[in-house]
Amino acid sequence: MPQLDIGTYASQLFWLFTCFGLLYIFMSHVSIPLIGTVIEKRHLHIEKTLNRGMELEVKAENLRVKFEQVLAESRDQAHKMLVSSVHDIGVTIAHQKKESSEAIMARIQNAQNEISKQKDASLTELKHAAGMITSDILQKLINIELDVAQIETAINQTLQSKGA
Amino acid sequence: MQDPLHQFMIQTLIPLEINGVNLSFTNSAAFMLVATLLIMGFQFFGMRHKALIPGRFQSLVEVSYEFIAKTVRENAGVEGMKYLPFILALFMFILLGNMLGMLPYSFTFTSHIVVTFALAMLVFIIVTVMGFLKHGLGFFRLFFPEGVPLAIAPILIPVEIFTYLARPLIMSVRLFANMLAGHIILKILGAFTIGMGIFGVAPLALNLALTGFEFFVAFIQAYIFTVLTCLYMHDALHLH
Known about the structure:
Helix content of chain B: 55-70%
Number of domains of chain A: 1
Distance between the termini of chain A: 166 Å
Radius of gyration of chain A: 62 Å
Strand content of chain B: under 5%
Order of helices and strands of chain B: EEEEHHHHHH
Strand order of the largest sheet of chain B: 1-4
Number of strands of chain A: 0
Number of helices of chain A: 2
Number of strands of chain B: 4
Oligomer: heterodimer
């Protein structure tokens, strides 16, 4: 059995410790520090990215709260503006309504005054015409000449006595 | 039929003798050197970009590192991480030794008891020195744990000491015997395949399945050696 050939042991042990020693030195001084550094760097990078993500999340949350505040304030302001506008419009309408009705009343009054003036003028003319007609009739029927002014006075007295 | 033990023959490639000691470069030494260079090349080329986002090659190097780092952390504790270079070197060296042996016409240096025993002794010495450095004479507590009735001390202490001293032998024989037996069976079945003519299909099929199994054994034996090293380190660091 070759395994029991003691003559080969020295050579096997010598090369085993040479190779294993070389491998151990390579591992402890080159590869493991290298792999360790790369993995550590990756962990740090991941951690940094996660922290940045969390920071951004907090920032986003703050912005959302701020946005909602601004939105609520804007809504409140808009509501106030609406109420104030409705009130202003009501006041303006009432004011304009009042002005319009006053203007209409003034115009009605003027028109009534005018009508009354024209009525008086027409009545005066009618009385004068009645006086003249009456004077003409009297002169032609019974040949009495009466003053038109006297006849007008008589008509006035008659109308007043009848309450016209 | 060729001798199934022929594959384990040590053949001198470059004769070398220092002070009358034969240190010739043999087929065994050649495969040790190939394993060492392959591991170094694997790690060196895998990590040459030092990429933050690793490629396939770098991932493989990192996975092998993480696998052993995890084994050390779980079995030897965080304190054992100081010895990670030694344990990773041990695992990779044995794994490559076992795996290279699966190549046709190759040589399995882990099938030689002197090699596995030397590695086991190395572990044994390191663990013992580590224990004494950490606990001084308190390291002897390992042989008589606290809370055990004093009456059984005369039986327990010799048993514990014997178990402790038997560790390198158990570790080395397990690895050596697995490699030896596996390769002998593959060789014998190979000889049957040739010798049985058309009926050689049966041993060939068995050989095929066993070759797959041998790859598994090659890995698992390297892993067992590593885990045992970690557990012994844990014992030395924490005394049970």
